């Protein structure tokens, strides 16, 4: 069978023909990683995790963080070996072949584009809460939520998606500089939250610790379901690897950026989640008809949360961290937390859009996407892939305008977990196939770490709600159809006889 494996040497050679400018160092990469990771997951999805797992979401954070940690080691090894745009897509092309690479790239659309939409919705929640508390006005729900929960269109989410797209068109260096400022704001806000919430924790609020059990009686619920959802809070770290082609000394700086950002974020998450649970509790809202917890993001829980008895619960808040401080008496500080989220969440949207555009750029450069010549155009003044950035930004805007945050986050996770599983498999395959290849960074204990990463990703994938799993498989089927109709026949590897590690001279670049 012809797997059309693209040799690493050919990947590096073709990247040089349409390359991006290397401007990012280790500090900027770490800040980009923190900027991508700390965001909607901790600022918004804490409430969703509480509804799924109750105080047991503390364990969910640990499970998701562990899966990300072992996956990060695999990512660091491949990112240092293959310092070009494309992330898991490019790595899969070099290891598992063109079909799998296409599927990974297709899945990454769910990770980055849908994630950017989810964060835009999360930002909208804080924006609306901040405006309503600060000016004592009530913004109509029809313009702050999608049709799924009774609204018409989430206007603030659409606006922020368009603004961040415009910023990315201006340039990578400019985006990274703005991002570093926003990261500092986020870290300051979370530090303040920890300082105020942790000292007043009440251990009674941790009981019962797991009201919905580990797996839950409903698909996607329980500690496992919360871990699968809260995984969204960590996944931004792999967006760092999409910047490899724009990184100075990537062999050194990529592992620092990947692992450093993940470690810092994990520490913050555990402390923040503990403070939120310990201060006001995190018990789910129960459906009296079934005696089971409502599904997060559903119309039923939206109705239940409007009842006076539930309105003050953590699980009913669209801005849980600000809500916690408001409930324990820090009303002015809660506005500051809301302001910090309002200012800082756009950095996460920025990194998600950044990652998606670079993967589209790599796929178009490999001639696997329609209109590849237009998509790989570099702006003559800003030196950014402006066409693909604008196209991606418009798609993100549409999703943000009409879908709720929880549904978008779970769908994003499905694509992420598939890509992560592929990366872990690729590390082991490449260790066997090319053991002598220079590895600036080697994942320690790879024959333990990589299988753990694969098993963890598979476990979280099947802990997602059933509808999310089905949506992913339908999306994958559409991707295979697109590849069969367009990409397979136009791939330079197929036309020039490259397969299974062949190293014939690559076709001339078509400018």
UniProtKB/TrEMBL annotation:
GO terms for cellular component: membrane. Its main location: membrane. The keyword Chloroplast does not apply. GO terms for molecular function: amino acid transmembrane transporter activity. It is a multi-pass membrane protein. It is found in: Membrane. The chain crosses the membrane at residues 24-45, 57-76, 153-171, 178-198, 218-237, 258-282, 336-355, 387-409, 415-431, 443-464, 470-489. This is Amino acid permease.
